[in-house]
Amino acid sequence: MNVTESVLFTSAAPGAFPLKGGRYLFSVTATFGGGSVALQGLLPDGTTFATVPDVAGNAVSLTAAGWKTVDLTPGQYKVTIVTATSVLANATSVPV
């Protein structure tokens, strides 16, 4: 099977984006310096974003280079950066 969706983000362009939904691998590299990079989803009120949980129920928020697997519904998502710099984040669908 092929990857059906992959979105790359940098610290310069962390705006909201749509995802089709399904299983994704969220990966991040950055100069963290005590900061974090999180994946957030739009809640039903249409204005509030909250950090999504990974498949184990933990927040999809990284404080060191790495990745997390997350199951997402179709919708709007954004990457939230707290004091980290030189951020490269990627959300890539995982064929099942």
Structure, explained:
The protein has 96 residues and is mainly β. The chain has one domain (6-93): Sandwich (Jelly Rolls). Helices cover 0% and strands 56% of the residues. It has strands at 6-10, 17-19, 22-31, 36-42, 49-51, 61-62, 66-72, 75-82, 85-93. Strands 2, 4, 5, 6 and 8 form a 5-stranded antiparallel beta sheet that branches. Strands 1-9-3-7 form a 4-stranded antiparallel beta sheet, with no helix packed on it. The radius of gyration is 12 Å and the shape is globular.
Oligomer: single chain
What order do the helices and strands follow?
Answer: EEEEEEEEE
Overall shape: it is globular
| Average pLDDT score | 91
Beta-strand percentage range: over 45%
Number of domains: 1
Q: What fold name goes in the CATH topology slot?
A: Jelly Rolls
Radius of gyration: 12 Å
| CATH C-level | Mainly Beta
Number of helices: 0
Question: Main sheet?
Answer: 5 strands, antiparallel
Counted beta strands:
9
Structural class: mainly beta
How does CATH name the architecture?
Sandwich
Q: Give start-end ranges of low-pLDDT stretches.
A: none
Which bin fits the share of residues in helices? Answer: under 10%
